[in-house]
Amino acid sequence: GWKNGLAKPVDFVVVKAPVFSFEKLTQVEPSLGPEMKSTGEVLGMDYDFAHALAKAFEGSQLKLNRRGEFLASIAEKDKAEAISIVKEFSKLGYTVKATADTARVLNLCGVKADTVELGHELASELKRGEYALIFNTPTKGKVPGREGFKLRRLAAEHRIPCLTSLDTAKALARALKAYRSGETPSCLSLNEYLVNAACQQGVRISKLTV
């Protein structure tokens, strides 16, 4: 029943997410660039984009803690765009904490953020698992001596989700909103998604191999 040309759009969404092993690779910069660093990938599927995102995040071993403390340390170049993102996490119920410059900007823009200092005390808090999420965008690259690099490494070593991209942070906020919406995500096998799509496109199931 399949014909030539592009396939018709299906009504389910598939999100592919990479899987990383930064906690096992010491001294590797956790922020991403053009080089390949993933050690695998997963798929999240659903009829709703936000739920597919959430499944992809969870499948990639990113713990979606619904509550807790959210630590922000944003590079100067990213601060303007990051304000609205941090505000979304605040609305989702996270307690926002931030390094000095980031906290100053957030508070000036109406996002309540307590100031924390990068150092031994914060390292101890991270080790104890007191933070649910970290949002840190790099400033000047992969210099092990810089505080941002140390923060990202601590997050990786203690398995705390660390968002280093504005787009990823936006996507995670959207996924968490889906969890809070009360809507139940679909729970189907890959075959069931494909069979449902084939039925919608008029393909005879008896000839469909999945």
Overview of this protein structure:
With 210 residues, this protein is an alpha/beta fold. The protein is 37% helix and 16% strand. The chain has 7 helices and 7 strands; from the N terminus they run E-E-H-E-H-E-H-E-H-E-H-E-H-H. The strands form 2 sheets. The chain has a 5-stranded parallel β-sheet, with helices on both faces. Helix 5 links the parallel strand 6 and strand 7 (162-163). Helix 1 (49-59) crosses helix 6 (166-180) and helix 2 runs parallel beside helix 6. The longest helix is centred in the last third of the chain and has 15 residues, at 166-180.
| N-to-C CA distance | 14 Å
What is the beta-strand fraction?
15-25%
Mass-distribution shape: elongated
Provide the spatial order of strands within the biggest beta sheet: 5-4-3-6-7
Biggest pleated sheet: 5 strands, parallel
Task: Provide the fold topology.
Elements: E1 13-19, E2 40-46, H1 49-59, E3 69-73, H2 79-91, E4 95-98, H3 100-108, E5 114-115, H4 120-127, E6 131-136, H5 147-157, E7 162-163, H6 166-180, H7 190-200
Parallel strand pairs: 3-4, 3-6, 4-5, 6-7
Antiparallel strand pairs: 1-2
Helix pairs in contact: 1-6, 2-6
